[in-house]
Amino acid sequence: MLGAGFALAFAALRGPPLLRDPDLVGAALAGFVNPFSSGYALDAIFCWCVLTVWVIYEAKAKRIRHGWIAPVLGIVPGVATGFAVCLLLRRRQEADGKA
Q: Per residue, what are the HEC states of the chain?
């Protein structure tokens, strides 16, 4: 629910400005306008990197399938949604006894 909540909040906050000006590069760089936002943006980028490495590891070590969805969702809407989906996929596969 937290991942879905984040996705909805992200769409509500970022959707209207992107519809007015669909400059994706400019939107991404807007996260680096000052030292504070730069720190938060860099944290999100590295969290996405950690999530991606974890998904790749679990795909090989535990044969978790469809994990590639998590890093994609980690880009848009964000890592919170990607991580939540990763945990749900993992839990479902482990409950089915396939992991």
A: CHHHHHHHHHHHHHHHHHHHCCCHHHHHHHHHCCHHHHHHHHHHHHHHHHHHHHHHHHHHHCCCCCCCHHHHHHHCCCHHHHHHHHHHHHHHHHHCCCC
